[in-house]
Amino acid sequence: MEKTGQGMERWDFQGRTPGPPNSQGRTPPANYINSPPAFFRVVGEEEEKVLVAEEKELVLDGGFLVPGTNSFGHTFRAYDAESERQSGVENFYRINHISQTYDFVQRMREEYGKLDKVEMSIWDCCELLNDVVDESDPDLDEPQIEHLLQTAEAIRKDYPNEDWLHLTGLIHDLGKVLLHPSFGELPQWAVVGDTYPLGCTFDKSIVHHKYFEENPDYHNPAYNTKYGVYSEGCGLNNVLMSWGHDDYMFLVAKKNGTTLPSAALFIIRYHSFYSLHKSGAYKHLMNEEDAENLKWLQIFNKYDLYSKSKVRIDVEKVKPYYLSLIEKVIFPSKTEMVNWGRGDEVYEKYRTRAMDMNQLGLLNRDLEFRLLLVVARC
After folding, report:
1. For labeling, which of 19, 54, 77, 243 is most exposed (least CB within 10 Å)?
2. N- to C-terminal Cα distance for the chain?
3. What is the pLDDT of residues 154-178, one digit of tens each?
């Protein structure tokens, strides 16, 4: 472990994911990496493992308290609860499940993976999220920069020595800049929401699963079996996921030469893959590295989900700390500007598909207006 100044430490990962130390900086047992996710707290001179089995039993190291309800007084991720956001969230998933196809995702990854359209600093992208609200989220209607900082600060409190995890909390949703005009202003269904594999059957655990019946891949015999185009243990890196902010930010980080460890990239890419890390679906596609990284994702998810609140973070107070980490941990060779992608060339088929949905009455007025703005750029 290397001392880096300002009381921070930087891990030497040496190609593997380290086990998390406790709040007092002690390293857990050497065999932690082969153990289930656990949180450590010091009781006198002893370390006590607190295994997290269910969300209702969650005790996070450092004193983070899990609220009983979300900002609207409902349990978290209660997609059937009557609330002011319920109908909009369900309509979002209807459009998302109809539109995300194997072909669509291939085209989006190819175009956005070029990363040749926009150059902007990480922090500037964070500030763009002041203008973005996630329509798929039943738990929060605050600007997304608040969610990034709430997640990062909750992790920082419980894992003060894991600077890479603080940064992962800050940037995990940064791909939502795809909703901003500077990045092509994609519609919400192509940016946010739970993610899931394409090219194989849609698991029943995916929220609002019934709407997949109108997705053309649902009836394609090449895609509608357990394995589809994949094989046992092929590894999630070889699985095509629904397109959105997760996969986009993964591409940005990977192709800009980030020094974040594989666990961080796994969190960024799959943190919305709830059918895996919440319901246990699709594990037959995972390899050994995925299984190890999943432990970190399940730790991260508690903070990502339960730190959402109306309590605002003092941005100016925490900004210097995160700017120092951006330079040190994320893109050390790109301390100022990072290359981002924007897919101006992939919309003709997308536009036709959207107009078909409009004829079916599936597009609300706001989404239709934003979609037409995107098409106008072609």
Report:
1. 54
2. 49
3. 999 999 999 999 999 999 999 989 9
